[in-house]
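Example 498.
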Amino acid sequence: MPKKEQRKRFSRPASSSPRRPQRQSERRVREQDPNTIPSYLVNHLAQALRMVLKLDGPADVLLSVYFKRNHELGSRDRGFVAEAVYAALRHLAGIRWRMAPAVPERSPRLAALVTLASLYGMEALDSRDVGNDRKALEAILDKKDSDADPATRAELPGWLYERVRSQYPDHDLFFKEIATGAPLDIRVNLLKGKRDEVLEQLKDEGKKVVATPISPDGIRFLDKPGITHWPLYQDGVIDVQDEGSQLIARLVAPKRREMVCDFCAGAGGKTLAIGALMRSGGSLYAFDVNEKRLQGMVPRLRRSGLTNVHPIAIRDEHDKRLGRLLRKFDRVLIDAPCTGTGTLRRNPDLRWRLSEDELHRINEIQKSVLESASRLVKAGGRLVYATCSVLKEENQAVVEAFLAAHPEFHLLNASEVLEGQGVKVPAEVKDRFGPWFVMLPQVTGTDGFFGAVLERDPDAPRRRKPAPEAEAPSEETESVKAEVTETAAPVSEEQKAE
Ligand SMILES: C[S@@+](CC[C@H](N)C(=O)[O-])C[C@H]1O[C@@H](n2cnc3c(N)ncnc32)[C@H](O)[C@@H]1O
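Predicted structure in complex with S-adenosylmethionine:
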């Protein structure tokens, strides 16, 4: 292999090219070898890295601020800069180690050159952009990965590396997966379309799509098109949702006329999937402490055609008003706040912003939310605890501690719950994880997800009531809805208008 080829250290995103068309204004400034990356893109990458490497917010948010401030950048240029920023974040430990004693956040231009040379090779850089940094850059690129410590090679902070390493025998495959991006999955809204028909339509339109292998509702794009302007999206036939997240909604297995609660609903990814499984029947309460996130659900709900969802902002898991809903729900989903370590392919910056202290803080909230939300489950009802974390501390350990303190709940086999709906759960998932539902990038090709299905013993016999009126919310729950709706005015007002 020629030496320059050896220097391409990062796998290159399929969509990006080092040869960007130069803008007219740039050409006027100076002529440049057309086979190299235009200088203005190197400069933008350095400035974007200066901002994003502060790690004081999610990379996608910081990047969109950067692009707003630099609105003269066209969409292809934005794509190029974004891909390079994400590559730098995926390989930040390695870049840091190579650049030492220089530090990427203080030398973002050098970090930009290292990133671009690692993606496209030194020959893609204009010698005037490299300037006096050539020697330093060559020394940086010549360092051998095998000399770095294992956590650096895994591109994880030490505390997280140790946990993943000790927990998963196939940890090396996990490390390999988190060095790549994630595909774009969508869920077909069962109220408005059939998966196979939408799949055919997309294929006829020339889109590169396949059915998701496990979720019966999903479609996977082999590239990553922008879909939000498509009629299928605007009309609510499809929504963006990772296959793993679709399956968590299926773990809830709601029936059409039931009372269901999505306790940590956020912007409603799983709420929408559960509502569609309920065919918009029954009542679906969507709680969250973050009113702004709940508001993000409103346009999605409008597109989806669901009319059974009640988004309600709560103060916290001890909100007094929840007292009126005790033992009222057939199903409760807790999509708990978590470290998000299952989504590192999508959110490569997350690992550098997390800490062990943060993990412990989140862990306390998880236990407390599970404790409180479990009280809403009626006798014989189901409780699903889920996270997008790959850490046992946030998953099995939380549920095991809860079960030890609550003999009135027992664990169901999550794979059987899915198979009862015709979902083909991979044998490896069943064999490795028993009653738990665990998805991992290296096993299922999805984000990492955890789900546990618990059932409250049917200690109190269900009241026999004539269907269907009897299954409608009681006056008491209606009054809670009205009361809480007032406090969550911005969400619920829009909701009422639908
Ligand atoms: C994993 S996210 C939910 C994602 C969402 N279910 C989805 O599918 O798009 C966890 C959510 O829990 C919420 N949360 C945090 N603490 C909470 C609490 N004490 N009670 C209820 N929700 C809480 C956060 O605001 C966040 O939206």
